[in-house]
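Postdoc handover notes: sequence design on the structure in folder B. Input tokens:
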């Protein structure tokens, strides 16, 4: 994972590097560090913890330096410690890396056998190997080429040599962009972090090797590279009046869903529909692929497609799909990848794998500048705007909306939906923001639920049909930001094992839309109450209140909008419970926003 930054030939390096690093902090926040560079000198400062801690350690102005490389880490190999923090540097070389070097143990055996010290991390290994190689290879380009030839894994490196004052950039698998403004050159794992600094941009391709000397950029493997004008993103990195990004992002849902729906209501679909028709002529199924929250969007899509279309649909965790045999020549599946960031390594690798087997792909993403967009046949955007909180909220509901719209298009093309049904369902989608606004105004249930959770040892989410994936999502939200043990179950599965978990210290949250399964889910609640468990029910219809059962009545739902209506209250209770627990809500322990390692 991790985020890397480089600023070559510029001023105000401290302010700029901290600013860019803090925008990359969503990629990991275990440790951070910078190397300031100039006049054959390297000055490195690292800290365990967040960028704010590094900022406190940068006491001087560093005006005498003209360049800097920096890093924010999500630990993979080696514990979280100052020793394992990047940059790895001495007075000759400094390097930062985003990614994993898979063959680092082999490299240690081959090049560092004489080394006494225990080398914990893959990147420290690379640093030490580079030092060894540099004893024999003087020419820096040859040295870098040699290094590249012995590395296995997915990575992006920035490497600075003090004697020649050159910076090299290497990319294989992990994202890296280079931007320019006048005589200054900038690097970042995420181009949007460079917003205020660059006029032109180039996204490195796998295999690219670049050298920056003073402000001159040479592409050592590819002469045809062209910088393109950079369009500033409209994304803001501010919490406004909110205490955390997460709660701000929950509240933004009505507006971002409205914007997303506007896009899907416009003429865009005329174009897209033609492409989709062509794809569907040669396809007999869809496979939805994602990780974490995005996988829950895949599961919800499966219910939508099964209800409104006749197409075969299945879902895959990206991390599993990558290692499956998909060489089935008779299958003409279209693979649909869902990713907020468009950079999740497992999803990206699954996309590349599927492409290499000749399948068509669609990406649904919130990041139109991302690597996945460059890999897929077609991109469907969500307009959630930048999501900073590690817990995905508005990105998830925008994914659901894009998927619901896609489903209705397929339904029309395949003649499963007539135009009256289609228009009615589209109207339901347009009404979602106003229903969510109503939910945002109902805050009377939150304290009570926070209290119930505070005295519980675990919380289970139970639901059926198209809100079952929302139970999984509710559980993921709660565990990731409050660290409470939680799981999501399909209501009908309770009696097949999970009900053994129920006792008086367990809270169960049942999502119970008013549909043909309403009574079945009521029975689930009764069975839990009968075993002394506490039950909270979210529904648009009361079941007739019972002892120990706390009901929250939500706006009336339809099949297509129910996943949205049942998601938002779960996001809110996770947030307020975590607030009560005092956890680090926007940057929960052990996590990162964008999982860019395998
Ligand atoms: O950027 P992506 O949508 O590909 O991220 C996938 C997951 O890592 C992500 O959804 C994760 O599960 C959420 N941050 C959890 O809230």
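Designed sequence:
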């Amino acid at each position: 994972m991790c985020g890397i930054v480089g600023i070559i030939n510029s001023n105000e390096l401290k302010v700029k590097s901290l600013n860019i690093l803090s925008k990359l902090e969503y990629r990991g926040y275990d440790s951070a560090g910078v190397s300031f560079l100039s006049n054959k000198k390297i000055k490195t400062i690292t800290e365990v913890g967040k960028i704010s801690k590094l900022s406190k350690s940068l006491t001087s102005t560093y005006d005498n330096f003209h360049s800097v490389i920096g890093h924010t880490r999500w630990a993979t190999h080696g514990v979280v410690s100052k020793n394992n923090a990047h940059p790895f540097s001495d007075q000759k070389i400094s390097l930062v890396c985003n990614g994993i070097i898979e063959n680092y143990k082999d490299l240690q055996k081959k090049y560092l056998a004489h080394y006494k010290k225990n080398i914990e991390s893959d990147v420290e290994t690379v640093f030490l190997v580079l030092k060894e190689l540099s004893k024999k290879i003087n020419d820096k380009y040859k040295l870098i080429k040699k290094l590249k030839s012995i590395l296995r894994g997915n990575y992006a490196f920035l490497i600075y040599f003090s004697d020649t004052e050159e910076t090299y950039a290497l990319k294989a698998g992990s994202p890296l962009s280079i931007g320019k403004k006048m005589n200054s050159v900038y690097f970042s794992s995420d181009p949007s972090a460079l917003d205020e600094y660059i006029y032109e941009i180039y996204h490195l391709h796998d295999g690219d090797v670049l050298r920056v000397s003073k402000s001159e950029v040479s592409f050592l493997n590819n002469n045809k590279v062209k910088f393109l004008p950079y369009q500033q993103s409209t994304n803001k990195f501010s919490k406004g009046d909110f205490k955390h990004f997460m709660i701000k992002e929950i509240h933004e849902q009505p507006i971002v869903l409205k914007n997303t729906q506007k896009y899907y209501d416009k003429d865009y679909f005329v174009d897209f529909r033609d492409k989709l028709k062509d794809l569907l002529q040669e396809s007999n199924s869809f496979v939805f692929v994602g990780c974490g929250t995005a996988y829950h969007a895949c599961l919800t899509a499966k219910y939508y497609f099964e209800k409104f279309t006749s197409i075969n649909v299945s879902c895959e965790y990206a991390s599993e799909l990558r290692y499956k045999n998909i060489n089935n020549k008779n299958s003409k599946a279209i693979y649909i990848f869902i990713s907020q960031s468009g950079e999740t390594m497992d999803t990206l690798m699954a996309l590349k794998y599927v492409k290499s087997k000749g399948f068509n792909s669609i990406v649904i993403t919130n990041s139109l500048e991302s690597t996945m967009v460059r890999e897929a046949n077609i991109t469907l955007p969500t307009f959630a705007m930048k999501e900073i909180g590690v817990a995905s909220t508005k990105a998830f509901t925008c994914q659901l909306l894009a998927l619901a719209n896609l489903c209705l298009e397929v339904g029309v093309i395949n003649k499963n939906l007539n135009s009256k049904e289609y228009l009615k369902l589209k109207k339901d989608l347009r009404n979602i923001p106003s229903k969510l606004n109503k939910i945002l105004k109902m805050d009377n249930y939150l304290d009570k639920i926070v209290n119930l959770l505070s005295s519980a040892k675990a919380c289970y989410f139970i639901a059926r049909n198209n809100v079952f994936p929302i139970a999984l999502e509710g559980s993921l939200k709660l565990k990731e930001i409050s660290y409470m043990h939680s799981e999501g179950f399909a209501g009908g599965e309770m009696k097949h094992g999970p009900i053994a978990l129920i006792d008086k210290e367990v809270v169960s949250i049942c999502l119970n839309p008013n549909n043909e399964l309403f009574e079945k889910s009521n029975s689930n609640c009764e069975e839990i109450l009968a075993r002394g468990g506490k039950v909270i029910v979210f529904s648009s219809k009361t079941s007739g209140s019972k002892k120990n059962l706390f009901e929250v009545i939500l706006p009336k739902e339809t099949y297509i909008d129910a996943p949205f209506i049942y998601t938002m209250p779960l996001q809110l209770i996770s947030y307020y419970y975590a607030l009560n627990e005092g956890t680090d809500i926007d940057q929960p322990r052990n996590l990162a926003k964008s999982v860019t390692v395998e």
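Context for whoever picks this up: The longest strand covers residues 93-101. Don't rerun without checking with the PI first.
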